Amino acid sequence: RTSIGAHETTNIDLWFDGVRYVELGSFLGEIALDDATDEERVRLRAGSDEFFDQHRTTVIVSGTNRLYVVSSFVSIEENQLDLFETPYGNIGWLPKGFDTLPEG
Predict the structure, then answer these.
(1) Which of 31, 74, 92, 95 is the most exposed, fewest CB within 10 Å of its CB?
(2) Angle, vertex CA 2, rays to CA 95 and CA 41, nearest 5
(3) What average pLDDT does range 1-30 have in this prediction?
(4) How far, in Å, CA of 70 to CA of 62, rounded?
(5) What are the percentages of helix, strand and coil residues in the chain, rounded to 5?
(6) CB half-sphere exposure, 45, CA atoms < 13 A
(7) What does 66-104 look like in DSSP terms, one character per residue?
(8) Do 40 and 59 touch, CB atoms closer than 8 A?
């Protein structure tokens, strides 16, 4: 998720479902999305044709790095959620969000 700042009024979430492979850094900075090249597909296939027969390869370009997520589905959503706010509502027993422990 991007964060809302002085110049932004919304942020962008990338959602991946059915993830089969991830190759990402811990900090991405400014990114762009791209399609995988034939050479990248060959390298990522690594003995598993399943990656490309039934899944999508999303390339995340961050600076000079090309990073990869192989998944069944990818969604891009614009919203106004806080950086740590979940779009799923309350998770399990956490009544007020991730940072709240149960009382008692």
Answers:
(1) 92
(2) 110
(3) 80
(4) 17
(5) 10, 35, 55
(6) 12
(7) EEEEEESEEEEEEE---TT--TT-S-TT-SS-TT-PPP-
(8) yes
| Cα 17-33-69 angle, rounded to 5 deg | 35
Per-residue pLDDT tens over the stretch 71-98: 988 888 887 887 777 766 555 544 554 4
3-state secondary structure of 55: coil
Write the CB contacts of 48 (distance below 8 Å, at least 6 apart in sequence).
none
**In the block, residue with structure tokens 């990338």:** 14
The burial class, CB within 10 Å (0-12 / 13-18 / 19+), for 11 is: middle
Compute CA distances 103 → 7, 64, 92, 94, 95, whole Å: 39, 48, 14, 10, 10
Alpha carbon dihedral 80, 55, 34, 47, in 10-degree steps, equals 140
pLDDT of residue 100: 47
Give this prediction's pTM. Answer: 0.70
What angle is formed at CA 13 by the lines to CA 63 and CA 75, rounded to 5 degrees? 100
